[in-house]
TrEMBL record:
It comes from Psychrobacillus lasiicapitis. It holds the Pfam family DUF1569. This is DUF1569 domain-containing protein. InterPro entries: DinB/YfiT-like, DUF1569.
Length: 149
């Protein structure tokens, strides 16, 4: 499975982000491309330990049992629910969000697994750095596929 801590996997994601344009349209879902970039950036903040959304009751009950969906080779389901605090509803500026996300990916990747958060994921709970690395790649891949790149 691909992992954002792997340099070549991170570069692949960054190149795919560069292939997005303001006119990129989603193949599913309601977010436009700028909101998607902001959403992915907000998810990076959680993994980097810069945001600490609370755990919801459903995640507390079943999160650890479904956690493997975050770091296996099966694609994430289209239109799955998201963490409420990273659901982007306000309009965003495409180029700003693109630069912000790319910088966060570069920082996260270059900091390495030892700088990954110890704070639990708001749904899945405690993740190892390896699980975060695979989960970050899978989340980004999911949304880039959503926009055809």
């Amino acid at each position: 499975m691909k992992d954002i801590f792997n340099q070549s996997h991170a570069e692949e994601i960054l190149n795919r982000i560069d292939n997005l344009t303001l006119d990129s349209k989603p193949q599913w879902g309601k977010m436009d491309v700028a909101k998607m970039l902001a959403h992915c950036s907000s998810f990076q903040d959680i993994a980097m330990g810069n945001a600490f959304p609370p755990r919801g009751w459903l995640g507390i009950l079943i999160g650890k049992f479904v956690k493997p969906i975050l770091y296996n080779d099966k694609p994430l389901a289209k239109n799955m629910s998201t963490i409420p605090t990273i659901l982007i509803v306000d309009d965003k500026e495409f180029e700003t969000e693109k630069k912000k996300l790319k910088q966060k990916i570069i920082t996260f990747q270059s900091n390495g697994p030892h700088k990954c958060t110890n704070h639990p994921h708001p749904f899945f709970g405690k993740l190892t750095a390896e699980e975060w690395g695979k989960g970050i790649y899978k989340h980004l891949d999911h949304h880039l596929k959503q926009f055809g790149v």
